[in-house]
# Entry
Amino acid sequence: MTHSLRNYRRLFLVLFFLTGTTYLLAADSPAVQFCQQVSPLQECLSGQRDSFQLTADLQVMIDGKHQEIKFELIRYDNEAFDLSAHHSDYSFQIFRRSDQTIFELPHHQKRFVSSGDLKTKDHLAAQGILTRLIDADSSVVTYLPMLQTPPASLGLLLNQFVDFQFDKQQQLWTIDNKTRVQVQEGKTAAEPWQASCKSDDWTCDLSITTAPKSLTIPPITDDFTVETLDRNILERQLCRGVKRAIAILSPSKRLTDPTQKDRSVEHGQLQWVDGQRVALLWGTSEEIGKAHAQLLARQATRCMDSVLYTFGTVQTIRTGRWFQHDLEEAYARLSPYIPEDHKRELTALAEEMGWDPNLSNVLNVFPELFHCSGFAVFDSATKDGTLYHGRVLDYMTTIGLQYSSVTFIVAPEGKIPFANIGYGGFTGCVTGMNQAGISLGEMGGRGEGQWDGVPMATLMRIALENCQTLEEVKTLWATSPRTCEYYYVFADGKTNSAVGVAATPEKIQFVEPGEFHELLGEGITDVLALSAGQRLQTLRSRIQEKHGQIDTETALWLMSRPVAMQSNLHNTLFIPKQGLLYVANADHKHPAAERPYVKLDLNALLKEIDALKSQE
# Structure
């Protein structure tokens, strides 16, 4: 034992000597010197400086063009700051004081004003702001401790992973042979600290000085419009919007590689099938809504944050209108046309989530504000006469909806069970198929603001829950008050029939397979093909090339790029006669068309629901 202890002591002394030697050699390394030079920036970002003025002039390539964005942050104390961002097309300014918060849009000459005490946990006070803006959904959370690490220690850490080179003559740092940084330190406290950073596709000039003493908020001119908001709503919007944006831009493994664990609750079960979420729900409207929330609370919250807070903040800056107010206006006009059982389901979901029911209501009319490709091939167009219905959803992968993707298998009490390719927290339908062999896909058009009718996603779900035949679907659309402009492909696997639909509030047109249409061109026998522009031409040429030979694999190929756009959120291939569907969802790097398809058997999954119901 004594001999063993003596050996451990020797080993410890050797390790201590080697570690100490390495520390002394590295203490004057380029990485340590660099971290010491940029320590003023680290102090500002970490909150170690109580007050400062930070400006950043950023030039970056966006959509193939050099764009210039100017940022300025003035921190006066823990409660007060000014933040502004200016681009040639968009701009905003935030003025925050202990008793009020102002969100100003100079391009729209609009100022949103709020005041009073704050109760929300999602607020903008400087102390601890990074922990409210960055959570475990973002890989950035890994680096937060570095901001509090002393420069010398941080340099020693970075020295192991990052290559720092310093050109003394040019006073130029090169980091990993990609980024070049020049730092100019002020000789006195009154002089600014400055840095110039350059990479292949962006440059940024930084400056840090002392903050002004005056906390006066600049007055506005008479041509500005002022709108008053609840301060909790305003700060929550900005805080959660930025937090979700950071997670989307830099997702952690919690988003890109989530834990795949099946779960069961009363009236619901979450399964993982080849990496995709499949939620089985059954019962009354209230039971389905509650089970939805219990199984998919995290996905529902992400969907809410993406739509209402992140996209909503960007849309407010773009339009000058408070986004939630637009949604509330839409819901007020759409609400009379929404079935009461759908409302009860949403209310139960909101109650279980702890949401204001108004938020879940407006989230579910989101598709009405923004307006893809679809086809049906059958009989002579396919290899064995089988009907294949393809649906391509090109829709805003940039706001991270793919992280909330779920295929719902729903068996509502007293109605037709159905599959709904959707997202946590969203109960409407844009892509679905029911047990009766009816499949539906939608493509948005124009007409935002025409909201005196049944919401498109609600009408789609009503059809799945109630329609046994294609004629019943057509009658539902022809007799229901409709909103906006939408195009659809509907199919019935029992009769090998399909129809295209062009619908506005005023009129509806049904396009039969093989029929000429001015927007679609010459008809193709036993084919419906809906899209636009070059994507339509590609889709048509592919179908014509493979006409009479189309099977499952070929039908999936029809939906590949460039028929699907880069924003391709999900693709679905229905084989309604067999009750089969193939689903692909986008991930953080790839559109859905470049992701693997998962085969689901609706009838088999409904049998699982029957077995689960018998156990309750």
